[in-house]
Each structure stands twice: as structure tokens, then as C-alpha cells.
Specification:
- The longest helix has 19 residues.
- α2 packs across α3 and α3 packs across α5.
- The chain is α/β, with parallel strands linked by helices and 683 residues long.
- It has 3 domains: 106 residues, no CATH class; 234 residues; 200 residues.
Amino acid sequence: MAQSKWKWRQDDVDTIFTVINQGLMKKPYWVEYHDTYEDGTPVWNGEKSVLWNLMEQAYPEERAQMMRRMLARMEELGGLQKGTHQQKLFAFFQKYFFSVIDNFSSMLYNEDGKLYEQMKLAMLQGKYTNDTDPLGQSLGDGQSPEVAWVKKRIQYLQSKYSFGDYDAKTAEGAITVRTSAQADATTNSIVLRLTPAMKLYPTIAYGTTVMRGNRTDAGKACEIVVDINGTSDQQLSVKSADYLLDIGDWSSYVINGALSIIGKRLKRLKLGDRDRQKVKILISSLTLGNTTSLEQIDIQNVSTLGGALDMRGNFRLRKFLAGGSSLTEAHFADGGALEEVDYPATTSYVELKNLDRLTNEHCNTEACAPNVMSYFVSGCDALQPIRMLTAIMDAQAGQTPHALRYIRCVGFNETFTDGRMFDKLSQLVDGTYQGIDAEGQYGNDPYPVLDGTINLTTGAYRDTYDALIQHYPKLKLNIAKWWIRFADPEVKRICVENWDKDGDGELSMEEAAQVSSIGTVFAGNNKITSFDEFRYFTGLRYKEAGLFHGCNKLKKISLPGRYPLAHTMFASCTSLETAIFPSNMGPSEEELYETFSHCSSLKVLDFPETFTGTVESSSFRDVTADLLFRSKTVVKFKSLYGWSMMYAGAGIYVPDNLVGSYKTADGWTNLKACIRPLSTYQG
């Protein structure tokens, strides 16, 4: 300084930092030499100075170099050895300006404020005039606004003079990639559209060349054109990413290798596009640093991007689009603001926790459904995770083994109109699926974890319900009605066609119980093989002859309670092997004429104690099955045309105390060799 013709001297410092000549905190952090206020007046009184205007025009680069030397020297004087350039420069102001504020008593600021109050009173009384309201000049120590102003000013000046975080040599705080010319050689340039979070000069470095954009307002895009040198691989660096809201659309840039994104104010990251033809980016992995403000991530059709993407720190993320990428895992913030997810086909993990804004309409798992291995959904109030789960299971139908193995679904309340989805859930207890505990550990639960409520506005199968409740005690099921599960589709068809009152394509237990007459809908049918579900027709009021006459393929049937046998009921059912009678079987008020005639395949007929009807001689024509009569009195016999009992079997079992009575009873004497005590039956 001793040899210099210039000497630094502080003068008129009442206008320092935010304060203007009128003593108001009005000066913006981005103010430059030729800036004006909204009314068009210059910010600086020296705006028209011939000397300074000529120096500005004559030495533009020298001025910039001098400013960079000043900033570098300020960093040295600040004394901060580690940290960013922003922090080092602020340390200078803290040391030489803000630290001395503590040396001034608060009483001084109070006394100073009184003077402005007195001037305000004087102005109101007409004793004092000024172009500025005195109260607006009462600023106290002004520390808080000045600190904020200085911090922004430091960032702004760095961007204007390509210093520190905006220097080509500085990698800290920058997004750095390797890029080359377009693969199809359609262009050798790319256009970066950078949107700053505050007013500054967006800057990039291409190789060792700094490319500074125009001064750009916060929230507005600045375009910087980068000419690519042939097809050579070159480093591209976006400076001070923490102060950017958006880095533009990178889907068409030829960028290779691993990509690391930082920027605590970034709101959007667009690396892909819905149109596969537009995507030329070739990154293999993506890492998110301090990107806590991100709201949108688009990596659609970035086919080279695989592995896992950790977004558990991105609580503000609302939209994640990854369809067409090769990501295997996507981890979101627990309790974040996520509203839309599009999973790629390669994803094997679906993990969604406490995302109360996410809905099924905007959670697309269609592409990845065949490949999902782990499914963890908890506390997503607007989501229907059971519906998603069953869709995934449908997509894996036919897989051997299925990809899905681990399931945890908690905190749901869903309503369904199709009870058949219950059958899908029942598959979860077949031993091929396991649970996930609350900490995300596999294998601690032998069965999937289901904890929530399912409401059915229609029917469901009771056996499925029982299986689910047995394994999932925390699962609450509200069922409108119980459907009958028919083993024989032909029987189901006939029953639905005749007695399905509500038209849901199923027959409920209530509907079956309301049937008063079967009629002849089954008689002569040569397709039905099984009718165990006949036991649910508890409302039958009439003895009906020939109900199943001629059903020569029928093998098994179960009768409803209190329903009596009737004439020719099972006549010529030559394939019938099993007829199950309920314990409360009704008595037969008339003879069993031809009831089981020609049922040559029967194994056993076990008549309960309540059966007190009359057996007619042709009731068991050609029957070889064992006959068990449990009535406490001898079952009556009636001969037809004087015929004896036409029974072809070898065993008639009756209560032990009635063996003698049967052997001497009318109609039974010719079969006395077959009559045996019930206690000896071993069938």
C-alpha cells in the first residue's frame, strides 16, 4: 500500500450493505453499478461519473481480475481454513464487521431510536420536513437483515466474477459429468437451462472454460449453449448447484457412467422422458446427495440406469417416474409427500411407508408386478394395498415358483365388490410366502403380515374366510353374505340359473335356504358328479319324487337337515358312491319306493336315528352297499307286489338291542343272515 497511489479509506459508511442514502434498508443484494430502482432512479449517485464509466469501459477484464484478487484476499483475512468459499468469505465479514456489534451497548440503539421518534413527532407537528419517514431510518443494530444480505451478496458476486464456487477449477458444490457429442451426430451442442433459486449468474465449466450465463432472476431459466468438441469425452460441471432450482432436461445429453446429483434447493430432476426416442443419456447409476428440496424425479426410459436409488431423505418428493429404466430398488422417505410413482419392470422391491397422499391411480406397479419379490406397504391411508397385492399375484399366476415371497401389509381399510379376491388372499397361507417385520427383516414371520380391514359389499366363500382368520387374527373382515362354493360347475350353473336372486353369478347360503322346491331341474342330468352343497337347501318344504332320477354320473351328495327321502329320489344313479344324511334327517312319511334302486356303486348308507320311514322292497334294488339303521325302533318294511327286499349286499347293521327284532320282523327275515349289530361295523 505504501507504493500505491490509492489508499483505502472508509467514508460515508452510513450507506453500507443494505442501507441507501436515505437511511432505509432498501438496497437489494444483487445491486450493480448501473441498476435503478422501480421508479427509474439510479441506485448509485455516481451513475453519471465520467471517470468511472470510462474505467469500466477501458478495463473490463482487469476489473474482474482485481475483484477476484480482492475476494481471495478477503478469504485469507477471514482466517477460516476449512469450508466452502461462501463460508470463508462470510468469515471475513464476521471478523471485521459483525463481530464488533457486540461492543456496542443496546442502550445506544435505544437512545438512537428515540431521536427518530422525536423527528417523527416533529414531522407530524409540521416542525420538521424530510423526504424520508424518520421511523423507517430507525434500524437498531440491523444485524439480522445485514447478515442475510451479505450471505446472498457473497454468492452473487462469486457468480458475477467466476470466483470460488463458480471457478472452473472448483469441484466442490458442483454437479460434474462426462459428456460427448450426440450419438446420432445430429448436433454437436447441448443447451443447458439452469433455473437459479436467487438472482445471480448461472455458470458452468466445460473442461477448463468457464461459461457464464446472463444475470437471471430467481425462478427463471437461463440458457447456456455448450459446443461439444467432436465426439471426445469432456468434463461438464454445473457450478454451485445448491443455489439452483432446476438444471433442465438432461434426457438428450450423451452422459456416461455414474451420476451424482447435489443441490439442496433443486426441485426437479429430469434425466428421462416418456418418449423413448428422445432419451440418449447413458448413466449406469444415480446417487442423490443433499437434495432435500426435490419434488420431481424423471428417469423414464433411461435403460442403462440400474441398481438401487435411495430417496429416503427426500421428504418433499411428490413425483417419481422410472418406467423404462432398469432400477431394481427405489426407496422413499417414510412419511414423505409422495403423490405419484411409476415403477419400472425391473423393480423387485415395493416399499411404501406412511405416504398418505399416494393413491392406486398414481401408483403404477403394472410393469414390475411379475417381478416383485418383496411387498411392504404400511400406513398409506389413501392407498388400497390389498388391491395392489392381488394384482401382483395375478401377474405372477403360472410362475413356478412365483417371484413374490415376502409381504407386509398394514393399516388398510378397503372395500371390494368381488368376493373372489378372498380366494387370492387365501393363497398366502400355502407356505410359499413369508412375512416382513416392522423393521423390514425377512423370515421372522412364517406367514405374510396382514393387519387391516376388508369390507365386502357382496359375498365370499366361508372356507376362505376361516383360513384367513386362522392365520391373520388382526385381519378384520366384514362380509355381506356367504357364497356356496360348488365343487361341480354343472351343479353351480343349474343353481345359479334357477335361484340366484341378486344376479351376482353366485348362490349364497341365504338364497339356497329360501328355495322351497327343487323340481326336476336335476333329473336325468348326465353331467353332474357331485352335490355336497345340497345340504344348504334347508328350506325345502315338500317331498319331491325323482329329484336326481337318472343322474348316472353323480358320485356324491349331502342332504339338508330335516329333509325326508322320497320316491325314486336317486333311482338309476348308477355312479353314486356316497350319500350323506344329516343327523337331523327328516322321517319318510311314505314308502321309499325305488329311492336307491340301481345305485350299484354305493359304498354305505348310514341312516341317522331320526329316520323312521318305511322301506319298500325295491328301495335298494341292486344295492351292494352296507346299510346302517340307527333308529331306536325297527324300521318298517313294506312289500311291493309281495316281493322280498331286493338288497344285493351283505351287511345290514342295526342297534345291538334290535338285532333279534329285525331278524324276526316282517320283510327282514329273508335277510337275517345280513343283519348284524352296529357295534361290529368297521366300515
